[in-house]
Amino acid sequence: MNADNIYHRGFEPLLERPGLSGFTFHSLRHTSATNLLSKNGNSKIVSEMLGHATISQTMDTYSHVMPGMGDVAATALEEALT
Would you say 58 and 46 are in contact if contact means Cβ atoms under 8 Å apart? Predict the structure, then answer.
């Protein structure tokens, strides 16, 4: 199968109906990962879904969308020590 053929004949027309032209397979993959992680999805599971070799690859790419990660870690440590 030719990826360009799949994109232009199948995927692109689907995107044009709701006015989403310009998206690619990769942008949808990135959006899915971003949404999962921003909703506190398990980073190991997201890493596996993306097919990343290591969780560090996922975290290096997507940690910016996980606001408050440091606060959560600090709170967990504080609770563990009290």
Answer: yes
pLDDT digits (tens, 9 = 90+) for 28-72: 888 889 888 888 888 899 999 999 999 999 988 888 777 666 677
| Cβ neighbours, 10 Å, residue 28 | 13
| CA atoms in the 13 A half-sphere facing the CB of 2 | 4
Question: Can you spell out the DSSP letters for the chain?
Answer: --HHHHIIIIIHHHHHTTT-TT--HHHHHHHHHHHHHHTT--HHHHHHHHT-SSHHHHHHHHGGG-TTHHHHHHHHHHHHH-
**What pTM was computed for the model?**
0.63
The rounded radius of gyration (Å) of the Cα atoms in the chain is 18
Domain ranges of the chain: 3-81
